[in-house]
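cron nightly-structures :: item 1 of 1
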Amino acid sequence: MVVLMMGVVLSAREPGPAGIPQQIRYDASKEVTLRGIVSAVDVSTWAAGSFVTVSLSAENGTFAVPVGSEAQLKRNQISFAKGDAVTVVGVPGLQGGLVVGKIIKGDIVMTLLVQKAVI
């Protein structure tokens, strides 16, 4: 299983000069698209809340895709279940994986990261 990183994952950050917020560089010219079927949905509870990861079965393997907190999914009126067709758009991460920019399910598009996000 390959892990895809959501845009807010710390390992996806680029180092910045002291005192300047670190930034994720989301270069839309390097976007890749992954299409697949949800084979499992996992909800992990952390101190900050519940976080949802889907296992996405695609042509070239199965990928763990962090799709956001339960609260974020609710705000965007999107949910995931086994058998759902999902498209993930992102850019290669600094340490492998994929920095997820948006997730598409049917007519719903949930944007997780824009062209340049300061975190």
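cron nightly-structures :: done
The chain has one domain: 2-118.
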